[in-house]
Amino acid sequence: MPPTPAVVSIAIPIDVPFADIDGIIEAQLAGRTFPEDGSGPVDVTVKRASVAASGERLLISLLVSAKGKSFFSFGSGEATVHIWGHPVLDQAQQKLRLNQVELAVESEAAFGLLGAAARAVMPHLQKALAERTTVDLKPVLGDARKMIGNAISDLQKNDDGVHVTAEIKSLNLADIAFDAKTLRVIAEAAGTINVDITSLPGL
Fold first, then answer.
1. Sheet of 182-197, strand order
2. If pLDDT is split at 50, 70 and 90, which confidence band does 113 have?
């Protein structure tokens, strides 16, 4: 029989706990100070970050500290900044980004005497987060490739007159979804599977 096309495409769901996403976001943001050019009357520094589901959006919560730089500013304070955004998969960069970012400050009184000046810095923080708050999902692709590699190892065989070979040509992230605890990434693997039959059982 003439050979038929051997192209195959498989969708693979990969679940990533939000606890793991927390570590990625915190590594990107913790220790950063806004405005980044130091031009504001107050320095607002991110101390901690976490991620959670919030309806159809993701919620990034930041514990920030504010410190005045003026002679007339006194002390410092802390507040929790919440950033809501719709998660969007950037397929070209294989990253998760937030669209339609909204920002609110909880417990503004925690800023104390720096309250008004610190709130003036919030637009800088919101703009920076909207542009740069991303989750690099390439490590997820590495996990998916391992899973597929294990599956291929189980699939490939060369006995009883049947020789099976498989190869993954490409692997990309295609979609995202999430529930209260887990971010689910859908990876699409494309490749080839070849089956050569040289003899049939009993013949």
1. 7-17, 182-197, 162-178, 157-159
2. very low
